[in-house]
Write a structure and sequence with these properties.
The chain has 368 residues and is of the alpha+beta class. It has 14 helices and 13 strands. The two termini are 30 Å apart.
Length: 368
């Protein structure tokens, strides 16, 4: 069924019946009393909502699909840092409070969507504004090597050489290690994400614009119906499906067949479902297996000793869920600090230390 995200009090708890609810609450009490030691993400999740609700809700299956490994293999430090939403949104106490609270009156949240033409117009405007300030861009070129100079760096590209006093990297750690010949001590695993783009005409079987796959089957993890925001095209709905691939060379055809079989078995998208295109993105998300965070920190420290500052989702092996998190990380890496609160609309950051001249940023492409 399609139900509330991430935990539905009605469908995940009340529909379990008297015996099922006894098992759910019993597993929570048991975890709180006898399973207080937290060694991994499964222990963390089980402590807050119990093993029974973790399984019944499908949350365990979704997180295994999202992170690329079983929960008992996910580092506990990551769980405490990135999975606090479980204790905030999925604990039984919060569920009970949501059940009995009255609906507040007032304005609803405003949803913002990018232009229908995509990200390109937004990036183009940002690029033009930065170029007016003296920033230079080299887009669509492949880096060959990074050389350390006495007063900075030399980045060799295909057919071009760039020198800079300071270098920042947001590309995968193993890639920048190879470019500057820094020894690679560990293999940091990442997930591969396949994006499937469909158009559809018929009865899709749900009303929500975004659906997460919490079921125990199917490789896809989320679908977004973009036509709910932008309108239909030639009478057809269109949406994107994110599929976590088993390996970097996983065929798109396998992902498509798996998605079609799963939604068909669950009575979704009854009608004309057509694949319009697909993309494959390697190094989509870090795989936070045990000791991966420590290994990433060691690799980043080795790059810093070489003079390169590596940060971001790829360069810092750091899952960043929002643009705000990325902004704060970038400001910290650049040596900026936010001033005291300003009047509404006045948000600014100021440097608190002198920066080296001619900084250089190397970055990798992302999905549109």
């Amino acid at each position: 069924m399609v139900t509330d995200y991430p935990i539905s009090l009605r469908d995940d708890i009340l529909r379990a019946g008297a015996k099922g609810m006894m098992r759910i609450f019993g597993s929570v009490f048991y975890a709180r009393l006898f399973q207080r030691e937290m060694r991994n993400a499964r222990d963390f999740s089980r402590y807050w909502i119990g093993a029974e609700l973790l399984r019944r809700s499908g949350l365990e299956s979704y997180m295994r699909r999202f992170y690329g490994i079983a929960l008992d293999q996910i580092d506990i430090d990551l769980a405490k840092k990135r999975m606090l939403w479980i204790s905030e949104h999925a604990s039984l106490g919060n569920l009970a409070r949501r059940l009995f609270r009255t609906r507040r009156q007032g304005p609803t949240n405003k949803q913002l969507a990018r232009p229908k033409s995509g990200f390109a117009p937004l990036y183009r405007l940002a690029q033009q504004n930065l170029e007016k300030r003296g920033v230079q861009f080299a887009l669509g070129v492949k880096p060959v090597a990074i050389d350390r100079l006495e007063n900075g760096f030399q980045l060799r590209l295909e057919g071009r050489v760039i020198t800079a006093g300071r270098l920042f990297s947001t590309i995968p750690i193993e890639r920048v290690q190879a470019l500057c010949a820094v020894e690679r001590q560990h293999v940091l695993n990442t997930t591969t994400l396949i994006s499937l783009y469909f158009s559809f005409s018929g009865e899709r079987g749900f009303q929500q614009p975004i659906v997460y796959n919490f079921s125990h089957d199917g490789a896809w993890k989320r679908l977004t119906v973009y036509s709910d925001f932008y309108g239909r095209t030639h009478g057809r709905e269109y949406f994107a499906v994110e599929v976590v691939a088993d390996r970097p060379d996983s065929p798109v055809e396998v992902a498509e067949l798996d998605f079609r079989a799963h939604v068909s078995a669950n009575g979704l998208f009854r009608g004309d479902l057509k694949l319009e295109g697909a993309q494959v993105l390697t190094n989509a998300y870090p795989v936070y297996s045990r000791d991966a965070a420590r290994q990433a920190d060691e690799a980043i420290a080795a790059l810093r000793a070489f003079g390169i500052q590596s940060y971001g989702r790829h360069g810092g092996f750091n899952y960043q869920p929002t643009a705000r998190v990325s902004t704060l990380d970038a400001e910290a890496a650049l040596g900026f600090e936010r001033k005291a609160p300003q009047p509404p609309g006045a948000i600014e950051a100021s440097p608190h230390k002198e920066q080296a001249p001619s900084p250089l940023l190397i970055s990798s492409p992302t999905t549109p």
